[in-house]
Amino acid sequence: MITTSGTNLEHARAHNRRVVIEVIRLNGELTRAEIARLTSLTPQTVSNIATELEQVGIISAHLPRRAGGRGQPATPLTLNPDSAYSIGIHLDHQSLLVVLVDLAGQVRFRKLVHVQKPQPEPTLALIDQIQQEMRQQVKIDWRKMLGIGVVMPGPFGVEGISSQGPTTLHGWDNVDIEARLSALTGWPVTLENDATVAAIGERFHGVARQLSSFVYLYIGTGLGAGIFTDGRIYTGHAHNAGEIGHMVVQPGGRDCYCGNKGCLERYVSLQSAYEACGLDPMSAMPEDLLGVDEALFDSWLDTAVEPACQAINIMECVFDAQCVIIGGMMPQPLVEKLINRLTPLYNSVRSRYPKSARIRIGMSGSDTPALGAAALPIFDEFNPQYEVLLK
């Protein structure tokens, strides 16, 4: 017998609330009539949801009324930044960064600690110390904390890759960081790889706000991709989707710690740039690349452009993305230099839209992963999830 699932009323109501919140977030402020038009919900449904969201403080209607035609002027609605907060934690080989943001993405607290090859127990103790310091310094309603997003270099749980090489964190393979941090803080914790959280951060606060399908190429110590399809993040079975750093782009090329030769991140990554510029990959920071001889960085670009173009071509053909966004921890002026070299691109399915940009520069710099991590709890709480309508 063939069966199909219906939609119960509560799932539909929850979904509609998320849709209303999302359309206000994307547009800044909207009247009830504008929300109804943009969401295809009935005016009565929008009015009921708006009233509910106002009562719990998620949206505000205190802006000046707009002059209209006949009748009462319309009152625009906007998100209340103080209605929700989240924490983002970025841990990598040399630093621990903790940020607290509000619903609008404004940073309310930031703490950067330099670490070397961080190990689980002292690092968890340090995070606990920082979150206690944060509670003392920041005067907010802590009951509105949605949770913590954590970003660490991936891939996760892949034998021969996760525990080896300069792009991974050693000693964390068997640590349930979500459970440990949740027990320490009392808040829910979500762990993702750096490229995925950067894509979510770009969707919430960057150039991808109006995009539903895009690929974010994240230049970190290695190289990864965050993938959005139809407004939803694609993480894969074990949260390793987008680990494009280990695609072989130069058969027989440079040795990679994963055992292959010619992997993409051996040509496009901070690690490869450090090597080309004569910096020690185990101690160099992204900002150090700004001080190297320009000819050395250009020599890295010479070897990075062709593999990068291959990666963009593959991502476009596989995901039919509206655009590919390039960002990450590399300083923005250097990302711009890379992008300026990536032309002409290979033809792909994306070539049918010649007038729209196929490549855009995303958020760049050392805070990008932490801000993306902070967007994780907000994304989980407010982003429309169409799959619930099938439950």
UniProtKB/TrEMBL annotation:
SUPFAM superfamilies: Actin-like ATPase domain, Winged helix' DNA-binding domain. Keywords: Carbohydrate metabolism. Pfam families: HTH_24, ROK. The keyword Transit peptide does not apply. Belongs to the ROK (NagC/XylR) family. This is Transcriptional repressor.
